[in-house]
Amino acid sequence: MAEVNAEEPATKLATRVVKGDPSGIAEAARCLAEGGLVAFPTETVYGLGANARNGAAIARLYAAKGRPAFNPLIAHVADAAAGRQLGRFDAAAERLAAALWPGPLTLVLPKVERCGVADLATAGLDSIAVRVPAHPVAQAILRDFSGPVVAPSANRSGHVSPTTAAHVREDLAGRIDLIVDGGATPVGLESTIVDCLDLDPPALLRPGGVPREAIERVLGAPLAYAPSCDEDAPRAPGMLTSHYAPRTPLRLDADRVAPGEALLAFGPTLAQGAPAAVTVLNLSAHGDPIEAAANLFSHLRALDVSGAGTIAVMPIPLAGLGEAINDRLRRAAG
Ligand code: TXA
Ligand code: MG
Fold it and tell me: How far is the C-alpha of 12 from the C-alpha of 201, rounded, in Å?
């Protein structure tokens, strides 16, 4: 049974370091296309990139970071036109994008339904965070790869964000495929995150590389303030950017299924009563937590519309990504 330990990856990868020159950039784009994990410089901090449309690659990304929970990730694209394929821009978002992209600004937007971004990348939310980085190496990789790349800061969970390739290597060597060395990042702190969902005025979720004043000048109005983006701090209930929750109640740690229930299964042996369940979806028939993470939010969404009165969820071991899966299930149930 494949098991991922958050501390030590099951397979130690031979992490390669390449320069941010044309050959390094081409290798980075190739690696992303093959589902690899690529650290690359942005103008803020180094990001750890994965193909935003590859759920398994994103699950490995969370495992590499050792994240205790699945936080939604920022989708990086080369320009605003690519961003419009992922999120819906209202007038304020359009003004901010025109004035401040490319640059250290992330916009949280209503997610375009068929954008193809894996549910795990947005942690099941109907919103998506989109950013157009200005760094020439990031720009070149995004243009070459020509798809959205999710990239949290390229550090182990709980460590500080890396501003050099050496920082990335210290934290993630053996856990990722490739590091593109583009020198020290000029801004050194993360992007400013602005919520453009349906708020008037938009809200500042995380202060960062673009000062609040610059954003307010573009909008001609003060931003609301709703700090909720501390990646390792659990979000307080009632916060603006809450977590995904299905409408159908969840029953956790179920070892049997009652009539009228759907089953979210894990592992080769199904819970008792499974044949009578409304629908059965298995997170991973092999009991692989990486596969389970990649399936988590899409399976929950599918079972939520299955017509079942309750979704029974089989127990999922805490090892590796199991901790994050259990954390999300508890929030979805609560
Ligand atoms: O400068 C940056 O933004 C860097 C570089 C690599 O681009 N990235 C970065 O990512 O700081 P990360 O994962 O460390 O922080 C992303 C933040 C998280 O706090 C997350 O909660 C928030 O963005 N976020 C992502 N999607 C969101 C959404 N749909 N709604 C609200 N917050 C979201
Ligand atoms: Mg971070």
Answer: 47
Name which residue sits closest to atom 12 of ligand 1, judged by CA: 152
Residue type, 221: A
Residues 274-278: contacts with CB under 8 Å, at least 24 apart: 277/308, 277/312, 278/306, 278/307, 278/308
CATH number assigned to the domain with residue range 16-219, chosen from the 4 options 3.40.640.10, 3.90.870.10, 3.40.50.720, 3.90.1700.10: 3.90.870.10
Ligand 1 close to Cβ of residue 328 (< 6 A): no
- Of 38, 109, 206, 229, the one to substitute when testing ligand 1's pocket (max ligand atoms within 8 A of C-beta) is 229
Domain spans of the chain? 16-219, 250-333
Between the alpha carbon of residue 286 and those of residues 32, 34, 89, 323, 334, the distances in Å are 25, 23, 41, 17, 28
Prediction pTM value? 0.85
Ligand 1 within 6 A of CB of 157: no
pLDDT tens digit at each of 334 positions of the chain:
334 444 555 568 999 999 999 999 999 999 999 999 999 999 999 999 999 999 999 999 999 998 767 889 999 999 999 999 999 999 999 999 999 999 999 999 999 999 999 999 999 999 999 999 999 999 999 999 999 999 999 999 878 889 899 999 999 999 999 999 999 998 888 899 999 997 778 998 888 889 888 999 999 999 886 655 444 443 333 333 446 778 899 999 999 999 999 999 999 999 999 999 999 999 999 999 989 988 898 899 899 999 999 999 999 998 878 888 888 898 888 7
